[in-house]
């Protein structure tokens, strides 16, 4: 909720914040921010690169595992569509990373980690056969990394 209050990320639950913009070809959807909270199998160890999993579907992994529903693919709608469009347009996207609090394993600390661009996008099959969207986010140069600072403090 605090991310919404300070204007970093509007949705209180969804990991992808997006907006509709008007351009020469009409209206289009672009992503403005993401929160990588560890609900999926995101690769969040690198300080300048983040492999981010799209939203939705029942992928049979992580926090997205729903045992009461059949495994299902992610769809190219809402946030996933916005990330797809942003990867083509090359717009900057704010990245917030959720990091497990070493003093309270039931909570996370969220840090704004700067502006990134999507360098690559692809579809990947999970261990149980569901298809998920993957996005390679690369940090724009010249920014301090809050994520790197947090990692150094934890060591």
Topology:
Blueprint: H1 2-5, E1 16-23, E2 26-36, E3 49-53, H2 78-89, E4 93-100, E5 108-125, E6 131-139, H3 146-154
Parallel strand pairs: 2-4
Antiparallel strand pairs: 1-2, 3-6, 4-5, 5-6
Description:
There is one protein chain. A hairpin with a 2-residue loop joins strand 1 (16-23) and strand 2. This protein is 16% helix and 38% strand. With 155 residues, it is α+β, with helices and mostly antiparallel strands. It is built from 3 helices and 6 strands. A 6-stranded mixed sheet has the order 1-2-4-5-6-3, covered by helices on one side.
- Total helical segments: 3
The overall pLDDT average reads 81
Overall radius of gyration: 16 Å
Uncertain runs: none
Q: Specify the structural class.
A: alpha+beta
User: What is the first-to-last residue Cα distance?
Assistant: 28 Å
Strand content: 35-45%
Question: Could you describe the largest sheet, including whether it forms a barrel?
Answer: 6 strands, mixed
Number of strands: 6
Specify the overall morphology.
Answer: globular
Helix proportion: 10-25%
Write the element-wise H/E pattern from the N-terminal end onward.
HEEEHEEEH
| Biggest β-sheet: strands ordered side by side in the sheet | 1-2-4-5-6-3
């Amino acid at each position: 909720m605090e991310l919404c209050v300070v204007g970093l990320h509007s949705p209180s639950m969804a990991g992808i914040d997006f907006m509709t913009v008007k351009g020469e070809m009409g209206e289009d959807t672009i992503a403005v921010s993401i929160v990588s909270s560890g609900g999926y199998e995101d690769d969040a160890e690198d300080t300048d690169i983040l492999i981010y999993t799209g939203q939705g579907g029942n992928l049979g992994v992580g926090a997205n595992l729903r045992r009461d529903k059949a495994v299902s693919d992610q769809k190219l709608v809402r946030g996933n569509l916005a990330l797809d469009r942003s990867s083509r347009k090359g717009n900057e996207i704010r990245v917030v990373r959720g990091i497990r609090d070493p003093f309270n394993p039931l909570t996370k600390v969220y840090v704004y980690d700067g502006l990134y661009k999507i360098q690559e996008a692809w579809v990947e099959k999970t261990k149980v056969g569901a298809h998920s969207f993957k996005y390679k986010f690369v940090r724009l140069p010249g920014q301090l990394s809050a994520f790197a600072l947090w990692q150094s403090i934890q060591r």
